[in-house]
Design brief:
Oligomer: heterodimer
CATH architecture of the largest domain in chain A: 3-Layer(aba) Sandwich
CATH topology of the largest domain in chain B: ABC transporter involved in vitamin B12 uptake, BtuC
Order of helices and strands of chain A: EEEHEEHEHHHHEHEHEEHH
Largest sheet of chain A: 6 strands, mixed
Largest interface: A-B, 48 and 37 residues
Helix content of chain B: over 70%
Number of strands of chain B: 0
Distance between the termini of chain A: 41 Å
Amino acid sequence: MSILRLSRVTMRFGGLVAVNELDLEIAPRQLYGLIGPNGAGKTTVFNVITGVYTPTEGDINFEGESIGGQRCGRITRRGVARTFQNIRLFSEMSVLDNVKVAFDCRQATTLTTAVLRTRSHKAEEDRVDVESRELLKIFKLDHLAEDKAKNLPYGSQRRLEIARAMATAPRLLLLDEPAAGMNPHESNDLMDLIRWIRDHFGMAILLVEHNMKVVMGICETVHVLDYGSTIAIGPPAEIQNNPKVIEAYLGGA
Amino acid sequence: MKGLLTALGIVAGLFVVNGLFAGSLVPGVSISPYFLQVICLAGINIVLAVSLNLINGFTGQFSIGHAGFMAIGAYSSAYFTVTFGDRIQKALGFLPAFGRESLLLLLGLSIAALLAAIAGFIVGVPSLRLRGDYLAIVTLGFGEIIRVFILNIDAVGGARGFSGIPKLSNFFWIYLFAAATILVVYRIVHSSFGRTLVAIREDEIAAEAMGVHTTRAKVISFVVSSAMAGVAGGLFAHYLMYIHTNSFTFLKSFEIIIMIVIGGLGSISGSVLGAVLFIGLTEGLREFAQYRMILFSLLLIVIMIVRPQGILGHKEFVTFLTRRRRSIGAAPGTTGAN
């Protein structure tokens, strides 16, 4: 039983075929890597899964229900969260509020309860405050809770993006190049963190990454895309020796 | 309980100040009618500026049609009180004059708020799908459509203007609604819903990806803001007793935008400050006639150069004084207390 299944998903932009009849299957608690040269369509796959784009053809199935073409916010509330390749934090808001916003999608407050300050609204705000701070502690950001997100160092901003995605309580987490711009030390920490998130929260993780050390180090299955089509799927060791993959990355002999 | 006492205190305080200003409380003690009118118009501007800040400053959706919603509120409530006022007053004959007039005003303002909210919904649903300049142009257009539409309704005076509106609003009512507007906007901003609004301002795509129903949140914010502008219009009509569509041109919308830009987009106290400063400057520089507009432009240019975020920026007056570097909605533990 898979948590996410893409069947023959195609995404066209005018004449350009960004993703071509892609089949992809992720099991619960799986660490799944999606790699490929620049322009292979990795981020497009992310955008199709999270509802930013509606797939031109094909079906996206999450936990047994078709989510293709649904609104982005709705897919998130169903349990698919993501981070962005180019960090997209709410930069003028505090670190704590960044996480709280993501919690809000599971809250029952309405405008009237907020204006009237009902007891249930206060209780919910308090609960969100406690849970957000706990989450920040897990990601070692609790001492920065009151700082503006834009003032954080790069590595912390990446961690905050993951923390914010975690606040929506996803069962599938999509990480778009989380190690981009990190030094070797930071990317080692990140690998431990990703593994720990999976073990601790028990969710499936789909990872797009250019840093091969990270991908090969933590992923159980690696999926290689080139020009929108699958060229190989398998465990890291197998992929590293696959002649087609080597050709796609290094060019034919 | 504490909140109720504070509210009663505010009402009583406004009542006393109203009596002192108008000269009805202590014989011989009053302020000049001109000065009182300036103060009252400042109060109406506070309602307009704070409500516009909800959609422009906090939600980050640049709307330039606020005067249109004000016009809807002004004309609908005025039409209501002029047409049905006498009958309602007669039906409420068992009440003292003050009670009758208050009820009539509140009814008129409810109609103003309701109709402005409906108009806000009709305008907001299609136009909030647009961003930045496009939204600004569409709201500008809608504001003008509303004005020209009213200009051509003969029942409300058309180009002659609408006269004979009963004087129901005064300092007390204007500042009571100014306080209510500030309270409601403050509570919205400092709630989970307010956080989602600020998140939309910061990054709409990321907000949507975090499960926020962005269109819904934007429309709600726009409708609330429009309803408050409608109330401001109702107060305006029943204070001046005569309204003309010339009071609701896009220049009025720009004036409100100037107020919130001077005070600081995303700061409630900044909007209040901006509204008071604006009316203070327009009245204070009255003797310089047309030259004050030059001074105004110069002032705006200076602010844009020296302090582009407005006088208070994103901060509120209290945090501004204590110099704590915090953004809106960031104060922990203050969410429950008020």
